[in-house]
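URGENT: need a sanity check before tomorrow's submission.

F., can you look over the Aminopyrimidine aminohydrolase record below? I want to be sure the sequence and structure line up before it goes out.
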Amino acid sequence: MQTAGGFSGEAWDRNAALYEKIRTLPFNAELAAGTLSRDRFQHYIVQDGHYLMAFARALALAAAKAGDAEGLIQFSEAAHGAIVVERSLHGGYLDQFGIATDVFEQIPLSPACHHYTSFLMATAYAEPYPVVLAALLPCFWVYAEVGKDIHGRAAPDNPYQAWIDTYAGEDFHASVAAAIRTTDRAAAGVDPATREAMHRAYTRATQLEWMFWDSAYKLEDWPV
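C-alpha cells as predicted:
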C-alpha cells in the first residue's frame, strides 16, 4: 500500500514513527492476540460508530469540493461506504453487546472522538480540497496498514475476526489505494504553503488516530 512518490510518500515517511506507535499500541496487540477485553472493544465500537458518522459527513463535503466528476463520485461512494460499515459491522457488534440504537445515540462522544470528529468537520468545511483530502487520508491508510498487520499475526479463532477481515480485506484496500491516488493528484499542483498545510493536516489526523485507539484501551471518559 505504501507509495514511494508524491505527497503520500512524503507524508508516510514523515509519520512513519507515529504509525509504528499506533501499530504497537496495547489495544492493537491485544486485538491481534484475541485477548482484548470486551469492555475495551465495546468502548471502541461505540465511539467508532460515532466517528464514522462524522467521517461520512466529511467525505460528503470532500465530494462537494471535488473539482471533477471522478472525485465527486469517489468520495460520495466512500461516504456511503462508511455508513454501510457503521450499520453492518458496528451494528452487528452493538447487537452482540445488547446496545439498542436509541441507547447508542445517547452515549456521548469520548474526548478523543470529539476532538477527532471536530477536527475533521472543521477541516472539511474551512479548508481547500487538497487539505481536506490530507486530513481524511490517515483514517483510510492507517486502518489498512493496521488491519493488514493484525491479520498477519492474529490468533486462531480470534473473537474479533470480523473486524480484522473488514480492514484487511481487498475491497477496503482498493478504496485506500484510490484515496491515495486522488490525494496525490490534488497535491500535484498546489503551492508550497498549501502542501505544508496538507502535511499538518495529515500529521494531526494521524496523531488523533493514536489518541482514538489509546482512549479506547483506557476506557476514556470526560474527567469532569
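My own read: Residues 6-217 form a domain with the Heme Oxygenase; Chain A fold (CATH 1.20.910.10). The chain has a mean pLDDT of 93. If you see anything odd, call me.
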